[in-house]
Amino acid sequence: MARTVRIGNQWVGDGEPCFIVAEIGINHNGDLDTARKLISAALLAGCDAVKFQKRTIDVVYTAEELAKPRESRFGATNGDLKRGLEFGADAYQEIDRYCKQHKLLWFSSCWDEASVDFIERYEPPCYKIASASLTDDGLLRRHRETGRPIVLSTGMSTIEQVDHAVEVLGTEDLVLMHTNSTYPSAPEELNLGTIATLRERYDVPVGYSGHEVERHITLDRAMWGSDQAASVEPHGFARLVRDIHTVRAAMGDGVKRVYTSEVPVMQKLRRVGR
Questions:
Q1: How far is CA 18 from CA 22, 48, 59, 211, 248, in A?
Q2: What is the domain partition of the chain in residue ranges?
Q3: pLDDT tens across 33-64, in order?
Q4: Which CATH fold topology does 5-269 show?
Q5: Of 56, 137, 121, which Cα lies nearest the Cα of 129?
Q6: What is d(CA 109, CA 127) in angstroms, rounded to the nearest whole number?
């Protein structure tokens, strides 16, 4: 059986309840009040945690990329947009306070080493490494140096690349996420059987991060922002959480038995052969 990993005060892995994360990402549109509303929506939906994204803009993007024309409420270039969407220390201090007040875990996907250093000051329960960063050995090592549990997505990666990333990170306090990185993903390319393959290969907990219905959370899919239309609104997210737990309950323990609720039906309908 694959081992379990403790994230905050919850265990993640085989035999444990589903640990459900609402991806806020950049759906806050650079507005702290919107971020608080998204956190509250995730809490009401029954999520276990919310996740943000942190980037050092001038490190993650080239000067040429930042200079490209791109109209937004923040200005006329791609750089204006990226900087406008990036929260700083004051905003994250409030996010940390608000989540702790409501006893909801929060963490972040960090896209560069300086962002890991930035988020580390808030002592997150874990870090998420995006599929796009799976081959960035320096970033993997910086995450591991924090000593915190790591959740690694494996989209757009060969099994050899995953092997190497796991070798760099080690398997201690590691959770893998089977992922198809297409937005949205075609059902025939989800390849959910890979979850068992990864679990058997690395003996770590393996979850699922899917984009066939994006698990980003939004207040309104019609809001301005590049990820809003591919996200799930609060009522939809609540149904998603409910149905995930229903499936979990329905899986049972695999022991064949007659339930007490079946006895009256059995007494009424069972036919004994002669």
A1: 13, 9, 35, 18, 7
A2: 5-269
A3: 999 999 999 999 999 999 999 999 999 999 99
A4: TIM Barrel (3.20.20)
A5: 137
A6: 6
